[in-house]
Amino acid sequence: MVSARVIQNLKTEFNRSWLAKLGLALVVLVVLTAVFAPFIATHDPTAQNLEQSELPPIGFSEIEERTTSEMVNGEIRTVTETVAVTADPAHVFGTDGLGRDMFSRVVYGARTSLVVGVLGTLLAASIGVPIGLLAGFHRGRVDDALMRIADVSLAFPSLVLAVALIGLWGRAAVAVPDPFVAVGLAPTMPDSFVLPITVVIVVGLVNWVWFARVARGEALSLRGQEYVKASRALGADTNTIIARHVFPNAITPIIVLGTVQVAAIILLESSLSFLGFSGTTLSWGFDIAQGRDYVSSGQWWIASIPGLAIMVSVIGINLLGDWLRDALDPGIEGEGGAA
Amino acid sequence: MSVGRFVLKRSLQGVGVVWGVVTVVFALRFITPGSPINAVAPLDASQETRQAIATELGLDQPLYVQYAQYILDLLAGDMGRSYIRGQEVVSLVFSRLPATIELAVAASVVAIVLAIPLGVASATHRNDPVDYGATLVSLGGISTPNFWLGIMLILVFAVEFDVFNTSGRGTDIGDVVLAVGGSEPFVGALLSWLAYITLPAIALGTYFMALITRLTRSGMLDELGKGYVQAARAKGLPRTLIRYKHALRNTLIPVITVLGLQLGTLIGGAVITEAVFSWPGLGTLVIESINQRDWPALQGSLIVIGTGFVVVNVLVDTVYASLDPEVVNE
What we know:
The structure holds 2 protein chains of 2 kinds.
Chain A: H1 4-16, H2 18-35, H3 37-40, E1 62-72, E2 75-85, H4 102-138, H5 140-155, H6 158-169, E3 174-177, H7 179-182, E4 192-195, H8 197-222, H9 226-233, H10 238-274, H11 284-292, H12 301-328
Antiparallel strand pairs in A: 1-2, 3-4
Helix pairs in contact in A: 1-2, 1-12, 2-4, 2-12, 4-5, 4-8, 4-10, 4-12, 5-8, 6-8, 8-10, 9-10, 10-11, 10-12, 11-12
Chain B: H1 3-28, H2 37-40, H3 47-57, H4 63-75, H5 89-124, H6 129-143, H7 146-160, H8 173-181, H9 186-224, H10 227-234, H11 239-261, H12 263-277, H13 282-291, H14 295-323
Helix pairs in contact in B: 1-14, 5-6, 5-9, 5-14, 6-9, 7-9, 7-12, 8-9, 9-11, 9-12, 11-14, 12-13, 13-14
């Protein structure tokens, strides 16, 4: 429960640790970028411009040697000329192979990552937490059955199961209108956000088991508490006891796990997009997959920059998770969270 | 309960989980839109052809008969035939498995060899530059997507410096071992093996290196604060002995458990690492099977992956029980 003591602990830990400050700053940066993407992006992230393709980021203009052959008076002549590949100040992070602005793609990619990360975590928690609480509270057969289901679920790596399910179900996506563009504030941007709905459902289905394990552990330790016994003696039914007494007291480790899970699901989403199992083409993982084809020909930025964006976001969220864990519940270890 | 009975009980539970794995994999076929016939039959197949295929695949039987037949076939070592390659799935899967195990083991070795000293140093030099450095390295490690790290390694070590190969698998590790006593040049075989495996092993191992560093650090800090460490210090035992023999040993027990549970992450990571480096393992087989709608090959790979996870975890519990007999009574 969020008491004054909890808030005090959070503050003390925050003041003590510069890593917590860094984590919060990074997360705020990513969240603001995602929310206000239409204002931050300098170009439409999906607009192609083949005449401006493969431009390097600012500060990385290069001189390239290009060899061309031409026929002059019946002879083949090879001409080597040096061409300057100059960065265009309009494209801060350069452009990709189709001339799309990398900066705008990175900005919009934050939306996909955060929305999938948060929705996927909420779905996983809303499946896992009730099941875990019920199993831990009742023990016995329900609990045994749950633990076996959890064992089976854990036997499949998240990524493998997610790839298999998306491969079988297809890659559905829904277009959600962008409110800023709808009211005419940012007219040059895409008018909707593509939400890869299958990915959200699948990552939720794949990761619920971590929440079930943590919730079960909490319920097991809370069921013997005096206030639970008292409530039972007063005639409260089980569901009420779980909802009123067990859940609020189990919330702290669930929040800590939830934070780590957002990071894990962002990594999972980027892996799925990288492998082509997503419903959107505006994602950091997708851009890394595109950029991979340019690595051997020298356009290093197309694959590098989206990966740095993933790193910054995930580092921020992990630091936030460490801060919450240290402040709220020094007893638990960060074991959960399969990427 | 004796350790033997504990291991027996865990093994029986393991068999139950494998049965669950098989059932889930069998059920996958029925939550799929579209009949499996479509994957095999030509687009213009006549009704008779489709009927013949259904009979051949056993799809005209009631569900429980299909399920029983599936389990019986598995017990007999038959996973069916790949739709696309026409090969037996069992031989297909087991031809790919060694490459994945090799990659996973190499990554674990990279991870453990770097992480344990780093974690110990971090704990024993708490709040020193060493500790900050190790903390940053491990934070970066758990936050980096391994497929991206793989591409960055290719960019630096293969494109810029051209020291490693980026695609495929070199000399078989078996041949490298055989070369020790044989007439083959050992160094050449070893270098060829290293040229291929180094980058994928680092890409896959980095996350685990970071994870183990964090676990070792926090475990060591816990142990070093305990009474027995102070007692050993008071007795005048050398510091290295206390750290490495007493404290580290107790730290490793929870580290091993977490690693067992994270094996799924390791295999999941191997799938994508294999995709980056065109490593011919189970992971590339999974992705190819899905893209080609080759269900038998996919089902076979999933069963082998799931069973492998269960087997390793039963082994981990066995090791655990022999290191710390108290576990048995929990």
